[in-house]
Write a structure and sequence with these properties.
The chain is an alpha+beta fold and 493 residues long. The chain is built from 13 helices and 24 strands. It has helices at residues 97-100, 152-165, 183-206, 219-227, 240-253, 270-273, 276-283, 320-342, 358-372, 401-405, 421-438, 450-457, 461-471; strands spanning 4-9, 14-21, 24-32, 42-51, 56-60, 67-70, 106-113, 122-124, 129-130, 134-137, 143-145, 171-174, 211-214, 232-237, 261-263, 287-289, 295-300, 305-310, 346-351, 379-384, 389-394, 443-448, 474-479, 488-492. α11 packs across α12 (450-457) and α11 (421-438) packs parallel to α13 (461-471). The longest helix is centred in the middle third of the chain and has 24 residues, at 183-206. It starts with a strand and ends with a strand.
Length: 493
């Protein structure tokens, strides 16, 4: 891993975090003070309704939308000791939800996924409390290791420490940040997590449902907890207040990395200096250009995300097959980066440029999978179809960057297209005729976008003149600069 930096812009109510690898933006997070996420929060809830048809239950956790608890998330399932499998749990025979839960029952649950669209938050009873080096599992008696620790000797060493320090009837997961750490550091982390859990249980006894018992950290300390590892060269923060809080947090939990946290005092705004603003603009764009030519187009829909790979102005190689392979390999790297950067989740379908040779298809899939290993989110490449479509999934926890920073266009309602000036001009003509049949007037004024006004006074002039003549009226077309192309007003004088 090359030079990695974390930049924190915290001068307004919107805190933004940029993660750079070799100077390139690879991850971006944003949190607004009045709109904090709820993933990781633990609640004492009450089962409102059991739905046998989908083997799930609705839980009141005190949030606006009722939480959704699947039977799979309501039973304690073991996982492989050598592998922390995230939510890829083993296939086991699950009991009916009616045998696991009952209406009115009080229950401790943790939010696993933010409410997205019309769906409420998804919750689980398999609770986890994350620290910097470890994750405490109060409901599963196992030891797990992050799959991103790849050195076998180090895995064995950490596993032995974890088994020694693990409290009876609890489970722990050793996180990637623990690589190279001492038993003392892991023990200190574990002691803190056990105190948090004990405090949570005390609250649970006293508070009636629904109530929040544990709220995950705000974005700055959470970023330090989850992302500040040995491979991060520096953390730059542009707010004195957040810098002091960050240093205080790091002294308590990651003392050896405190010197890497620095206050940014430059005159040029932090995100401008590192050209993050431009990178965010590109991350909200449908089209992303590839080095040397070619581009990808990313479209998010309700059901899935489609990514189309195009050759564009790419300089052709010796053959069509070689050209396709070269563009596809560049696209695979860029797609993996864009998924991380945009935090896109769910089902993703990629339409690579067609290739004939099986060896090239295999090389493409291997490159994509290798690039996806850099991603902290769980990804899985499912298959490549005969049509060259690659299906994959990426764990969705919250709304993507695009959906967080933008809203659906009120004009096109997410279609990504608007009516052409010609279509709107025809609508205006129909409305004028319809109104003139109902009432007698001397003058009609049409206020419209300049493009539409231009259509009416040039290509459609003949039609407008004929209407004017037929009804014996004057039609005035007035262009309005700030009118959307679909907006128009027809007034009668």
């Amino acid at each position: 891993m090359g030079k990695k930096q974390i930049l924190i812009n915290a001068l307004t109510k919107e805190v933004r975090i940029a993660v750079l690898e070799e100077g390139e933006l690879v991850e971006f997070y944003v949190e607004r003070k009045e709109n904090r996420g709820i993933v990781g929060n633990i609640y004492k809830g009450r089962i409102l309704k059991i739905v046998p048809a989908v083997q799930a239950a609705f839980v009141d956790i005190g949030e606006e939308r009722k939480a959704f608890l699947y039977v799979r998330d309501a039973v304690n399932l073991d996982f492989d000791e050598d592998e922390f499998l995230d939510d890829e749990l083993p296939e086991v025979e699950l009991p009916p939800i009616e045998e696991v839960l009952s209406e009115g029952q009080e229950i401790l649950v943790q939010v696993a996924k933010e409410p997205i669209g019309t769906k409420g938050p998804r919750v689980t009873t398999n609770l986890t409390i994350p620290g910097h080096y470890l994750v405490l599992l109060p409901t599963i008696n196992k030891v797990g290791l992050s799959r991103r620790i790849t050195d076998e000797e180090e895995r064995e060493r950490l596993k032995e420490i974890a088994k020694r320090i693990k409290p009876e009837n609890y489970g722990i997961i050793v996180r990637t940040a623990a690589e190279g750490s001492t038993e003392e550091e892991l023990t200190r982390d574990l002691d803190y997590l056990l105190k948090v859990w004990e405090g949570l249980l005390e609250k649970a006894e006293k508070k009636p449902p629904p109530s929040c018992l544990y709220r995950d950290l705000e974005i700055v300390p959470k970023t330090l907890r989850d992302l500040l590892t040995d491979d991060v060269s520096e953390v730059l923060i542009d707010s004195q207040r957040e810098y002091e809080r960050a240093v205080s947090f790091a002294k308590a939990f990651i003392p050896k990395l405190v010197p890497r946290i620095k206050l940014y005092r430059g005159e040029v705004p932090l995100f401008e200096k590192f050209q993050i603003e431009k990178a965010i603009e590109r991350a909200l764009s449908r089209k992303v250009y590839l080095p040397g030519g070619g581009y990808i187009v990313i479209d998010e829909t309700e059901a899935l995300v489609s990514i189309d790979v195009n050759s564009g102005k790419f300089k052709k190689a010796k053959s069509l097959e070689e050209t396709a392979l070269e563009i596809n390999l560049k696209a695979a790297k860029e797609i993996a980066r864009q998924l991380r950067l945009r935090d896109i989740g769910g089902i993703i379908v990629i339409d690579f440029i067609d290739m004939k040779e099986e060896e090239n298809k295999k090389k493409l899939l291997e490159t994509l999978e290798e690039e996806l290993k850099k991603d902290r989110a769980k990804t899985k490449v499912v298959s490549m179809s005969d049509l060259g479509l690659v299906e994959m999934t990426r764990k969705r926890v919250k709304m993507s960057l695009g959906k967080t920073l933008t809203t659906t266009c009120p004009y096109c309602e997410g279609r990504g297209r608007v009516k052409s000036p010609e279509t709107v001009a025809f609508e205006i003509e129909r409305e004028i005729i319809s109104n003139l049949k109902k009432r007698k007037v001397n003058t009609v004024r049409v206020y419209a976008n300049p493009l539409v006004a231009n259509k009416l006074t040039n290509e459609e002039k003949e039609v407008i003149d004929r209407i004017s003549e037929t009804f014996g009226i004057e039609i005035k077309v007035i262009p309005v600069e700030n009118y959307h192309v679909e907006k128009f007003t027809v007034s009668h004088g």
